[in-house]
Amino acid sequence: MEIRTFQESDRSAVVTLWRRCELVRPQNDPDSDIDLKMSFQPELFLVGVDEGSVIGTVMGGYEGHRGWINYLAVDPDRQSVGLGATLMEYAEAKLRELGCVKINLQVRSSNEKVLGFYRAIGYLEDDVISMGKRLS
């Protein structure tokens, strides 16, 4: 798998992958999320490509205090062979280069498979309550 930054020509394949991985929710328009990311730190929007096909994504962000990971996705037919871990290692390295010392991410509490994945690559549960407020 080659990891590179997102290109506009990847958009359709990325949205399709996110839908296949059940990352898209009614309140999240994937095209709007891509547009927003491309306006801020687009170099942290990464895709994994194999033989010309997008098979993975990870979207990182850093605001000077903490890093964040969003939209980690691996083609469901290619999961459990280390591609997700490879994408995360790459994103972590990019964030580390920016001075990031801690990464946060959010996982739905019911998603045991994904929680197990993150635990396996060294992520721990913080004793916090995640809060949010939609501004749009």
From TrEMBL:
The lineage of its organism: Bacteria, Bacillati, Chloroflexota, Dehalococcoidia, SAR202 cluster. CDD domains: NAT_SF. Keywords: Acyltransferase, Transferase. This is GNAT family acetyltransferase. It comes from the Bacteria. Its EC number is 2.3.1.-. It is an enzyme of class 2 (transferase). One of its GO terms (molecular function) is acyltransferase activity, transferring groups other than amino-acyl groups.
